[in-house]
Design the sequence.
């Protein structure tokens, strides 16, 4: 790709937001200098806590508002509850959460079947778009996976 | 939109969202983008991303219902909704750190609430839907100015402020050389905005030719394919009198390519919180005493970056989620005056019902995709 020198004087808006006083320490913070008086504020009304909300042990309470999407449930929920015994500073928090996420995927598939829905995983993965825009790549991938699977199958069969 | 597991999303019917707090609003979505940071969720890299969640933190919509304490918005207002959920009252909101609100995310203290961004960001369903619950409706949501294109408006919810803040955090002084890693929508916008702060030279690195071609024309900058360069850091040093750039911006985050070890440990095996290739390059390519601005998103655990060089070079790191509400007035001016033209980044307008394909197109960079926008059925009438 050829790159030519750019004359910034021709760029619309050049320098209009330049700020020589942009302080490197607190550029984004509107300092009120009230920090020294302690951190209290008039809390917003508390959203009724009528679902299970896990909260970080680095704070004393549930925030005034919170999301209500997908409360913890099942085995993944148990793992998540365990994870929240540990702080955000700990692998004991984050690694169990990642494990819970994976367990939750299996729970999701089971739930689909229980609810009479067969998940169309190829559609969920957007393979229609891949077929439309990257057919050669998709066929190559399929051929590679097919070849590896065949070799693995033959090797296993030979061993047995 | 319903997340079912890594790289699996689909459309499902979910119950209508309800007012759950007196400061809530219910918004009927008119536009909703897929963001590069949604790909971290989509790929299963963000802890506590639960099956059944609806993603989407960049959206506009029409107010359908308001809670009893909402005073500034009214039913029928067409609003753009910043991705940050902010109370406007806590110590951090008072300092205009709206991305760091302390009253919107119970699950983690390191980040404020974000729409549709896992339970690590508060557990809110997002805007890749027909309707969405919007907390603190008087704080973040902003009525779209008359005459503004809705495609421009939706880009003001995240992409434009994040790119702008990336440049702002760079503390760019007139004549500075600014290097931007990543030519995704945020990197493109950061490159464009670097000029507004007086940059003397703007250089962008990516690996996708179509994006490099786009950023070169859109942001009027230099653009290089790092796949064609032996060593990006040496390249930057060489082109800056062997000093390094004044400012480096990491506009990639956890999905970075370009270093096999980072890719394997960060993206394939999740041994670190994403691939930190861009940040690694940024630290090593900036000059001594320079500034590294980070807007790329990483997971909450650890990343492999050269901390020793950071100390020895005396580098200042500046990073945050964009404080959208703080920046909106200025950015609306820039869009209205034609200084910024964010809708030009939108390459794909996809029906919400085809969200699975939308994610695939964006994540696999198919069909020269730069920015996809999902449009719900009611907004297509």
Sequence:
């Amino acid at each position: 790709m050829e790159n030519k020198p750019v004359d910034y004087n021709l760029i619309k808006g050049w320098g209009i937001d330049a700020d020589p006083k942009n302080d490197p320490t607190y550029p984004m913070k509107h300092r009120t200098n009230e920090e020294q008086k302690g951190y209290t504020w008039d809390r917003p009304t508390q959203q009724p806590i009528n679902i299970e909300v896990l909260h970080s042990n680095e704070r004393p309470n549930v925030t005034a508002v919170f999301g209500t999407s997908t409360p913890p449930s099942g085995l993944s929920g148990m793992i998540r509850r365990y994870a929240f015994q540990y702080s955000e500073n700990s692998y004991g928090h984050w690694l169990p959460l990642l494990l819970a996420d994976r367990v939750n995927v299996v729970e999701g598939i089971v739930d689909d079947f229980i609810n009479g829905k067969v998940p169309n995983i190829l559609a969920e993965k957007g393979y229609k778009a891949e077929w439309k825009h990257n057919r050669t790549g998709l066929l190559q991938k399929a051929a590679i996976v097919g070849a590896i699977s065949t070799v693995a199958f033959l090797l296993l069969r030979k061993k047995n | 939109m319903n997340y079912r597991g890594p790289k699996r999303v689909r459309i499902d019917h979910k119950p209508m969202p309800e007012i759950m707090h007196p400061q809530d609003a219910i918004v009927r979505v008119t536009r909703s983008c897929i963001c590069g940071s949604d790909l971290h969720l989509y790929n299963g890299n963000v802890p506590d991303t639960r099956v059944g969640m609806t993603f989407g933190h960049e959206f506009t919509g029409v107010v359908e219902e308001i809670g009893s304490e909402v005073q500034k918005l009214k039913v029928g207002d067409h609003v753009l909704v910043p991705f940050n959920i902010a109370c406007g009252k806590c110590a951090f909101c008072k300092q205009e750190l709206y991305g760091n609100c302390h009253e919107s995310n119970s699950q983690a203290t390191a980040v404020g609430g974000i729409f549709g961004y896992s339970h690590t960001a508060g557990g809110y369903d997002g805007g890749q839907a027909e309707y969405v619950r919007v907390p603190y409706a008087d704080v973040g949501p902003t009525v779209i100015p008359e005459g503004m294109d809705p495609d421009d408006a939706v880009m003001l919810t995240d992409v434009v402020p994040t790119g702008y803040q990336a440049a702002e955090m760079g503390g760019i002084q007139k004549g500075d050389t600014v290097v931007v890693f990543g030519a995704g929508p945020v990197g493109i916008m950061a490159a464009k905005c670097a000029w507004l702060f007086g940059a003397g030279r703007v250089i962008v690195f990516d690996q996708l030719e179509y994006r490099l071609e786009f950023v070169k024309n859109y942001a009027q900058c230099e653009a290089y394919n790092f796949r064609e360069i032996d060593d990006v850091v040496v390249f930057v040093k060489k082109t800056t009198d062997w000093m390094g750039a004044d400012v480096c911006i990491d506009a990639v985050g956890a999905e970075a390519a370009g270093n096999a070890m980072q890719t394997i440990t960060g993206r394939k095996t999740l041994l670190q919180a994403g691939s930190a290739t861009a940040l690694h390059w940024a630290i090593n390519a900036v000059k001594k005493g320079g500034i590294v601005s980070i807007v790329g998103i990483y997971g909450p655990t650890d990343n492999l970056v050269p901390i020793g060089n950071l100390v020895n070079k005396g580098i200042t790191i500046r990073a945050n989620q964009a404080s959208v509400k703080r920046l909106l007035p200025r950015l609306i001016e820039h869009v209205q005056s034609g200084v910024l033209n964010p809708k030009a980044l939108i390459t794909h307008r996809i029906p919400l019902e085809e969200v699975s394909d939308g994610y695939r197109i964006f994540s696999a960079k198919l069909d020269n995709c730069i920015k996809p926008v999902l449009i719900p059925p009611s907004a297509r009438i």
